[in-house]
């Protein structure tokens, strides 16, 4: 009986060790998959946020450039009007004398 009890204990210990190894493999695999999924999700989120930030910065820059060209166009038109008025004024003065 003692030998049988020893064998049973040894068999139970072996089964427990096998179970622990199996559980370690299962948990390790689950952690690796979870880490991979989290990494991909994080990468996707970062990429999306970077794209949004770049799009925003480009839009702001485009708006600034558009405003700059609008002001430049306005200045050019005002200069043309002023030149026309001066020319008309000189023409009137010529015609007066």
Describe the structure.
This protein is mainly α and 97 residues long. The chain contains 1 helix and no strands.
N-to-C terminal Cα separation, in Å?
142 Å
Global geometry: rod-shaped
Helical segment count? 1
Q: What summary fits the major beta sheet?
A: none
Structural class call reads mainly alpha
Contiguous low-pLDDT stretches (5 residues minimum) are none
Number of distinct beta strands: 0
Q: Report the average pLDDT across residues.
A: 92
Radius of gyration using CA atoms only: 41 Å
Compressed to H and E, one letter per element, the order equals H
Strand content: under 5%
> What's the helical proportion of residues?
over 70%
Question: Summarize this, please?
Answer:
The chain is an all-alpha fold and 97 residues long. The chain contains 1 helix and no strands. It comes from human gut metagenome.
Secondary structure elements and pairings:
Layout: H1 2-96
Short descriptors:
single chain, 97 residues, mainly alpha, 98% helix, rod-shaped, Transcriptional regulator
């Amino acid at each position: 009986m003692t030998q049988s009890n020893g064998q049973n204990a040894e068999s139970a210990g072996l089964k427990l060790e096998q179970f622990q190894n199996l559980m370690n493999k299962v948990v390790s695999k689950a952690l690796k998959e979870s880490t991979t999924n989290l990494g991909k999700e994080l990468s996707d989120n970062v990429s999306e946020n970077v794209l949004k930030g770049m799009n925003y910065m480009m839009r702001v820059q485009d708006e600034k450039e558009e405003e700059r060209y609008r002001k430049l166009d306005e200045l050019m038109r005002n200069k043309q009007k002023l030149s026309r008025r001066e020319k008309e004024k000189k023409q009137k003065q010529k015609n007066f004398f």
